[in-house]
Amino acid sequence: MRFDELIHQPTRLRIMAYLRGLGTEAQVEFGTLQKALELTEGNLSRHLSKLEEAGYVAIEKGYSGKRPRTWIRLTGTGADAFDRHLAALEALAQQARSQRAPTENRSREETHEDR
């Protein structure tokens, strides 16, 4: 179980989850991602830059008509990293659930015995 510290930061985790939901072939326009995650332009830009430096996202700039646009997509490397990070989180959650169950059962038994 190994967490990816770059992805683990809450805003980057949300960005990666959103992009993973789209798949590696799809891209999203910067403004759409910004609105969906309710982030400021500067905040989103900063986090995307870090993810791009790691090779987790690809950022393409171009035009839609005469308007400049920025599109973001998850790379294969990013998808793999996110999947590994998600597996580590799931393992941690499973560990917490399995450790919690005996204690909860014992507490319930003690409560019934006290009646």
Structural features:
WH_DNA-bd_sf; 115 residues; ArsR family transcriptional regulator; three-stranded antiparallel beta sheet; Arc Repressor Mutant, subunit A; ArsR-like_HTH; DNA-binding transcription factor activity
Structure, described:
The chain has 115 residues and is α+β, with helices and mostly antiparallel strands. The chain has one domain: Winged helix-like DNA-binding domain superfamily/Winged helix DNA-binding domain (Arc Repressor Mutant, subunit A), CATH 1.10.10. It is 67% helix and 16% strand. The protein contains five helices and three strands; from the N terminus they run H-H-E-H-H-E-E-H. Strands 1-3-2 form a three-stranded antiparallel β-sheet. The mean pLDDT is 89.
Major pleated sheet: 3 strands, antiparallel
List the total number of helices.
5
Mean pLDDT: 89
What's the CATH C level? Mainly Alpha
Helix proportion range: 55-70%
Structural class: alpha+beta
Broad shape:
elongated
Number of domains: 1
Note the gap between the termini: 43 Å
- From N to C, what is the helix and strand string? HHEHHEEH
How big a fraction of the residues is strand?
15-25%
What is the C-alpha radius of gyration, as a whole number of Å?
20 Å
- Count of distinct strands: 3
| CATH superfamily membership | Winged helix-like DNA-binding domain superfamily/Winged helix DNA-binding domain
Main sheet: which strands, in order across?
1-3-2
CATH architecture: Orthogonal Bundle
If you consult CATH, what is the topology?
Arc Repressor Mutant, subunit A
Q: Unreliable runs, pLDDT <50, ≥5 residues?
A: none
Biased composition (Basic and acidic residues): 103-115
Organism: Oceanithermus profundus
Protein name: ArsR family transcriptional regulator
Region (Disordered): 94-115
